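Run log, item B.
One chain of 145 residues. Sequence copied directly from the ordering sheet:
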Amino acid sequence: MGCSDENLEWSSEIHATIFFGAEEKSEKFNLTFNKTDNILYFKYVNQIDTTKTIEISKIRDTDTLLFGFDKFVKTDRKPFTNNKLQNLRFEFYDTIDYADDATGPILFNQNYGLLAINNVYGPTIIFLDKRIDSLTEKIVKKLNE
């Protein structure tokens, strides 16, 4: 998985660990990436239930993500890195319009896409090339710091 300036469009399969309450599920998604002059567009579609679709866009040359109807901006939190993720730097993004039940933080890298979406009242989702429980635990811990 990964994009570069040469790749305007690509797709791959990605593993998701989904936490909702005490329940943990593993599901597979198809990830499609498209790039325009101004936007990096990532679309995650569940392989079994296509109504489970996540779309996120990164406005190029800014610190802004668009997710659902919300705008997220990069925070000053120390980025998450791990050698199992090629030491990529995943930046933290939080919504501009804070609410107790808001989604966030989001961990994102423009060459990888979504690593994690945290949601206090909804599902928290971790996206990896393959299931790695120890890495998933580190990501969840980092999200909740």
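Observations after the first pass:
- The chain has a mean pLDDT of 88.
- The first strand starts at residue 9 and ends at 20.
Flagged for discussion on Thursday.
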